[in-house]
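Reviewer comment 2.1 asked that we show a complete input and output for one of the modelled complexes. We chose the guanosine-5'-triphosphate case, as it is the one discussed in the main text.
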Amino acid sequence: MWDKDKHKSTKTMSHVSDLQLDDLLGVEPRLLSRLKRAGIQSVLDLAVSIPHELAAGGGDYDDSGVAVAADTETVSDLILKAEEALMDSGVLSKEFCTAEEALERRKSLVRFTTGSENLDAFLKGGVETQAITEIAGEFGSGKSQMCHTLCVTAALDKAKEEGSIIFIDTENTFRPERIHQIAEVRGLEPEEIMKRVFVCRINNSSHLEAIIQNLGKSVEQYKAKLVIVDSIISLHRAEFPGRETLAERQQRLNVMLHKLLRLAEIYNIAVVLTNQFQSQPDNSSFGGWNDSTRAAGGNIMGHACTYRIFLRKAGRDRMAIMVDSPHHAYDQIGFTISEVGIQDVEGKKSIESTSSESGW
Ligand code: GTP
Ligand code: MG
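Response of the prediction step:
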């Protein structure tokens, strides 16, 4: 099924792209060309595909030029083959492994500091690779500030892997000046950091879907270790507003999240998504913090993200609440936003006593 000898050393991220479709053994050339026509260029592309989407997109034409839909079962088999190839080459963990092996694999995780020591300790080390971390909260709660701070802390984390950050900006709130300021005030090298942050400004939901669909190539091209999407859902919420489009919107969101999770696992990258709060129509306290205020995206968002952190304002400071995690208790911690980005509340107080930036 898989030419193992040819790929004996294919264990690192940089080799993932070397796994070519043509190397998948036992796949008919007819199917290979069908896949390529559907835009699938590598084994990774295939492994992160959604069967029914691929079946529809990779349709063949009969002699009279009429489209013939590819059959989902065949496509599912191909995707399974691609996953097995990635397992054989060590990129994905095996279907069954011991808890010990799973723990060993988790040792390859990298964690990026949020900028606040307390918040890092709360997260057991920071924002993790091989996972999706969702940061949801009301407007002004600090989601984008956290993303900007992560750009800086991850970019020059010399103790950890070299690499860049991909910032997908759907709300036009990315500010290079803020990256520069956070880096400068932290005593890091702003110029060096700015070179490592690759920003993609998104115009509409189809654009976002296309960028995520091809994100594997960008991750490889820029050697990204952290991908930020700020925000994942705002464009889809705006473009698919009514109940009649809800199912389509959720399906599109599901496809993006599925892809992002596979990318996080396969490339050992951290994926950070911001999400908005939506008020429940049966409650009048819009924007407030109560049981009826929920993150947008429904169950699909809740299930797909590995960690779900809600932010809320607490006077001038902020609270982070771990709402869902496979290994954190439901808990909360305070942090604040200042000229250094995200930091501990105590840290800000010591800055304020020595500087004039206290107007926030
Ligand atoms: P939406 O995108 O509107 O949903 O909000 P958000 O959660 O992304 O909010 P964001 O991260 O943009 O936080 C904005 C808040 O951060 C502001 O209201 C300020 O309180 C704070 N803030 C932003 N920049 C600075 C700064 O340079 N210094 C300080 N001290 N605080 C800042
Ligand atoms: Mg924002």
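The pocket of guanosine-5'-triphosphate (ligand 1) is lined by residues 137, 139-145, 171, 173, 276, 337-339, 360 (CB under 6 Å). We note this here for comparison with the apo prediction described in Section 3.2.
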